[in-house]
Amino acid sequence: MKTLLYLPVLLLTLAVCSCGGQAPERSNTADAAPGPGQSAVVDDASNPNIVQVAVGSADHSTLVAALQAADYVDALTNVGPFTVFAPTNAAFDALPAGTLEELVKPENQRKLRDILEYHVLLGVYKSDSFVNRRNLGTADGRSVTVVVAEDRSVRINGAKIIATVPASNGIIHVVDQVLLPK
């Protein structure tokens, strides 16, 4: 039994001695500014992720600007999987006057991010898998309610899904309204 205990100690001693008895040098990364996130990766060969799809859509330029203002681009560029309810530019235009201008101010970044996270589900939810009157948890910790009509059209808190686009890290449901938490 004692022999078995000596073996790990012997191996550890050999490992320390082979390194010159010194611990590896560590750099202080706390002082260094963080580099760009996942959104800085250039990949024109793979299927586009959620943010790349939105950037490529003329109908979602307001959403992209809001993602940038809320510093939420890198989060939606990551692996996921995500389901995103993506309001069109017209949906943002339908907000009360001055709402969007107020939300994109730097001092309102957290509030804007909360609203954007309210449009995100963790996991992939295809239109045909939505269940009527089901509540689904959003990335901000709240929930949205699904309503499936007899014609199989789907509404999320009253916003109608008007198109669906697959992405490499999830799925995008284009909606005709901005979802606002109550």
Automatic annotation (TrEMBL):
Residues 47-179 form the FAS1 domain. The keyword Lipid biosynthesis does not apply. GO terms for cellular component: extracellular space. Residues 1-23 form the signal peptide. SMART domains: FAS1. The keyword Nucleotide-binding does not apply. It comes from the Bacteria. Keywords: Signal. This is Uncaracterized surface protein containing fasciclin (FAS1) repeats. It comes from Algoriphagus boritolerans DSM 17298 = JCM 18970. The lineage of its organism: Bacteria, Pseudomonadati, Bacteroidota, Cytophagia, Cytophagales.
